[in-house]
Design a protein that fits this description.
55 residues; 1 helix; 24% helix; elongated
Length: 55
């Protein structure tokens, strides 16, 4: 898995259209794993740094 400093530059383009909106949920996916790892740390005191998260 890449770290943030290893990621290539990402360019986003909004394409106008008249169809039903879709695909807007992906930007919220990347923070889920770190948030969950921090919640586990807060609850157990054990820091998980690798995916998949395993106790």
């Amino acid at each position: 898995m890449m770290r943030m400093n290893e990621m290539p530059e990402i360019e986003v383009h909004m394409v106008p259209g008249s169809g039903k909106m879709g695909g807007a949920g992906e930007p919220r996916v990347p923070p889920v794993a770190p948030a969950l790892a921090n919640a586990i740390f807060a609850a157990t005191g054990k820091r998980l740094r690798d995916l998949p998260l395993r106790l």
